[in-house]
Input
Amino acid sequence: MSSIGKSDQAVPFADLTDTAASAEPYRIPPIPFMRKARPYLILAPALLLTIGILIPFFISIYYSLTNYSFKYKDYSFVGLHNWVKMLTDPSFWHSLWVTAQYAVFSTGFEMLLGIGIALILNQDGWLARALRMVLIFPLMIAPVIATLIWQLMTNNSVGVIAYALRSIGIDNFIWGADPKTAMFSVVLIDVWVNTPFVIILVLAGLRSLPKAPFESAMVDGGSAWFTFKTLTLPMIKPLLLIALLFRSMVSLQEFSIIFALTRGGPGDTLMSLPLTAYNEAFTFKELGTALPYMLILWVIIYIMSYYLIRYWSRAQKNASGN
Amino acid sequence: MADIALKQVTKKFKHNVALNAVSIDIKDKEFYVIFGPAGAGKTTLLNTIAGIVVPEEGVVTMNGKVVNSLEPEDRNVAMVFENYALYPHLTVYDNMASPLRSPKYRQPESKIREEVHRVAKILRIDWLLQRLPSELSNGQRQRVSLGRALVRNPEVFLMDEPLTHLDAKLRHQMRAEFKEMQANLNTTTIYVTHDYMEALSLGDRIAVLNEGRIEQIGTPDDIYYRPATEFVAQAFGEPEINILTADVVNKGGSMHMNLLGNSDHFPVPAQVKGILEDSGLNAVRVGFRPKDIKYSFSDDSASSLRAAVYSIEPLGSKAILTVHVDGRLIRLIAAADLEAKPDQPIYLKFNVDEAIFFDPETKRFIARAGKKGGRSVG
Amino acid sequence: MGHKNPWNQALKNAALALYALFALFPLFWMLLISFKHDREMFNTIFVFHPTLDNYRVLFSSGEYIGYFLNNVYVSVGAVLLSLVVGVPAAYALARFDFKGKENLAFTFLSFRFAPEMLIILPLFLIYQKIGLYDTPFGLIWVYQLISLPFIIWILRGYFEDISPEIEHAGRVDGYSWWRVFLKINMPLIRPGMVAAALLSFIFVWNNFTFALLLAGQDVVTSTVASLKYISSDTVHYGQMAAAVTISALPEVILALLIQKHLVRGLSMGAVKG
Output
């Protein structure tokens, strides 16, 4: 007869803490290999690739301590010689200065312009909607190609901008070839390409803001600037930080625009760290002395990104707490 | 068609022990309810039986065979998930057909069509077969989830709070339908819920789980009339049982409890007296179910305890009457049309024969005079 | 939205128009020029007789087509490799919990920031030693630095959006883990995969530095080839413009396709958008 539903008369109340009831030790059967290995197998390809990518990085550190040159077969270990040489070379500090300038100016303008345009685009007019779709285009153009386009536009013979400038009396603006306007030129191209990145991010943030706080602020009668400062800004802070993070990290190591426009010139006006390293390695064919320039840049980028990401993480938590 | 047993199963997630030395024994074709509050470990327990989770300690057996790390697809269990877990990109038909198209339980398409239509008809969702889950209401999704399980012929049905996310009316209706289905299922079923009414009405046996430990296993009568711990007593029954601390006093040969400032009205029943004497306790915890307390507005009996009305909550067919005595609130069941004013004097009579006695230290069941409910494992 | 100051609005529209001009005119002008015959190049700017000659020359020489196809080959290869490696990795990050998980996730992210030149210098050495220099696979491998972070970070979010219960249901239904992944997970993340793949494709297509320095003779991508036009004294401005237009066209089209997923993609999944 089925014993379903009948209480177990034979078994008295067992004490919960009485483990003596389980006389035999329960051997846990081993987990089959496939089941145990599965998580590792899944992650394996990515890990292998990561290791493959990190290897060149460690090799860089090694070679930076040698006098390896592409010209000769032999090389020897020179310790920190290359590093010391670099740090005491004024051209290094100039490179650092150029790199910093480029990053600060391009990122700075992109952030300001991006935020401003995003604010204006955050309305529902037909123009705004149409533009939102189309303004992404510059971001899709390779920086090298963008440089080419701007070179063409400012070309004295056929360029439309050159033409326009000439018709208002300016005919000696030589853009990249002039040390005084070279930085301006490359920053302009960078801003042209990358401002849409900031716009898209900030716009997404603005459009996801809840309406309620703003409506009550309007009832309370604050000015537009005040609303922006105390309401909008904190809530879109995480996105602003992401935009800042990406733009600054990438612009610090920008190579193609400067290379394409002037190869680092005129003279050494635009010799940023990557350009200097390029020169050292591919023109002078010295690897050992080129590496420290990039390794220093990497350290700077890594440290900055670490703190920016931590800051972003905190801002993200604050923003969602609202 | 299976017995399932867990012996001393422990499962930890990071620092949280989800299951702590859990042992249960489920007989073939039994409708076994696992009851517990949120976070008790019910879903983890079900996942362990299904094979989704592998325990750190202990042994899981099906039909006597150890299956601790046997993959879920090899266990031939059917599961209804708390949030239905329907495949969003498949129609209702394809959702229900899914298990019958799997490598393990494959059936020919003609058979599939037959089965899906049969089950869909029983569950009254046959008119929804071409819809996507996103186009269904909660109740409909629940039926599809159920249907996906019912087209199978598994060793055991696992149901994880299937009625929880339905609105109250639908839930009561589905409970009745489940009861009817249960009789026809003819397969071992493990049903998880935090609703005590579902547990009492559907289960052949109930296992009460609290914070990863089993508090009691028994029939519905066992659980309700002889709860192994105060936790179990409080979990089953609405309004909640009133548990009070009392001193044991001896008054001229008979044992009384000093309760609510009064010892005359609470004699200890004869059957319980012996057990209390043996245990040598000076104080006990006594539980009175709301329906075991009578009330009257006139002081007509010497054994009435005077109290004051605190609040009345009319609930349609009955009302919950809360009264005030000796600094405590006591809940009773009252007639639906009862009228009374706050602080109005009221006279209570406690049925000590139905009272449940607990050890004040361990909070565990000591004794009860009433006959109902056999002894159960806990 | 409150009192609308007409001056305010006009100012806003003016600013917008100005920016739109700044952003779009260069592209528009390029397009225009590409239809302009060399001999008309120096005179009037906007009024001219359109011609397809520039494109004809570009295509007939066959060289540019070769560069374009190279770019397609290498970019598609890179994205495919990233998908094969990145989809499981994204799944692992979304589902599993293990020590150092967030560190690993950050490492993937940091690939995006790694200075190109820093990678190129040692690779220039290594590639020549192991014969990957100037090969398609060499570029495909190095391009992982660009495309893999996108795939992993974007898809991680999509996997996290799928309830684990659905996978459990599949297992219980009788499907092995791998089958569940293929038949249930993959279809559900398909929009994310498409978006991530397209976005990666765009940035890999646009790459200049790796393609220039780790390849350049046999494997020349269209992006690198464009440099030839900058440095040469060519007077074939029209062809230059045509080459640029063709090079930029795929990305512009792709950008229109992934409008919806742009925010999630560009912020690398940091923002759901």
Residues 242-368 of chain B form a domain with the OB fold (Dihydrolipoamide Acetyltransferase, E2P) fold (CATH 2.40.50.140). The longest strand of chain B covers residues 16-26. Chain B has nine helices and 20 strands. The two ends of chain B are 26 Å apart (CA to CA).
